[in-house]
Amino acid sequence: MNRGTPRIPQTGIRQDWPPLQWRHHRFGLPPERWAALSGQVFWITGAGTGYGRAMALCLAAAGGKVAISGRRAEKLQETLSLLQDFAPGASAIAVPGDVTDPAAMTAVVGQIEQCLGMPGGLICAAALPQADKGGLTAIAPDDLRRLLDTNVLGQLFPARALLARAAPAPVALARPDPTDRLRVLFLTSQAGWAATPGFGPYNLSKAALNSLAMSLAAEIAAARPGADIQINTLSPGEAGTEMNAQSTASPFAIASLVLALISHPPGGPTGRFFHRDGQHWGFGYQDPWEAPLL
């Protein structure tokens, strides 16, 4: 099944909100959804640059407690400095860690819990581009492993570390327990639906990520039927990040859609796919989500 078309018109999903005017527009969120983010703990991987940095700033602006992680400590410190300019007085910490190391991710979750509390939201924004156009038949094995380690396993390990610390709800629970609430968001790419010659390794990594997110959501829904856990995937498109420095779009373009998903009340989508402009997509056997996000 290819990408789906949006079945429900989206309202409030815009890509051009001026970031520094967030007090007035709340990135399109209704007041109650915006207010619900205040005081929650959020963990963002790959937050030293690009989309991860932008999302850390947005969540801090909403009053969230923000934990950022990545491999480059200096970039994380840059984000922390910008965060205090963007949302003075925000509660935030930097916890360096390699997303491809499961033990490191377990340690990161422990440190976040000790300093801020247990995260109720995770945005997996760490990713690597394909270094060359060698394609599947020419890419060096070490380069392929590095790409798959970061873009696939580096998304699973943070989520698995966090899910392992969240207590499962009783199977017999008829309705979601508000104390067992978690939102996980993976950032994918349209490459996950593509077959671009020369970029097969990157396409493969993102298609695998799509399958990972969909499969993980189904596993968690089956294992914890009483829990309010939503695991979804967002294709952010291109913006002026390290991976696409030539783009003139802002990394804040994904803010409305990210915040709509991360703030969604119980009964929302899980194992679904979205684009930053509000489109609901399908992947494999998974149909597009059929209800509005706002």
List the helices and strands and how they pair.
Elements: H1 22-25, H2 31-36, E1 41-45, H3 50-61, E2 65-69, H4 73-86, E3 92-94, H5 102-115, E4 121-124, H6 141-165, E5 181-187, H7 200-223, E6 228-235, H8 255-262, E7 273-275, E8 280-281
Parallel strand pairs: 1-2, 1-4, 2-3, 4-5, 5-6, 6-7
Antiparallel strand pairs: 7-8
Total number of helices? 8
- Helix content estimate: 25-40%
Beta-strand share of residues: 5-15%
- Low-confidence spans: pLDDT under 50, at least 5 residues? 169-179
Q: H/E order of the elements?
A: HHEHEHEHEHEHEHEE
Radius of gyration: 18 Å
Structural class: alpha/beta
Straight-line distance between termini: 26 Å
Biggest beta-sheet profile: 8 strands, mixed
- Overall residue-averaged pLDDT value: 90
Q: What is the 3D form?
A: globular
Instruction: Kindly state the number of beta strands.
Output: 8
Strand order of the largest sheet: 3-2-1-4-5-6-7-8
What is the oligomer described by this structure? single chain
Describe this structure in words.
The chain has helices at residues 22-25, 31-36, 50-61, 73-86, 102-115, 141-165, 200-223, 255-262, and strands at 41-45, 65-69, 92-94, 121-124, 181-187, 228-235, 273-275, 280-281. The two termini are 26 Å apart. The longest helix has 25 residues, at 141-165. The protein is of the alpha/beta class. The chain is 36% helix and 13% strand. It has an eight-stranded mixed β-sheet with strand order 3-2-1-4-5-6-7-8, with helices on both faces.
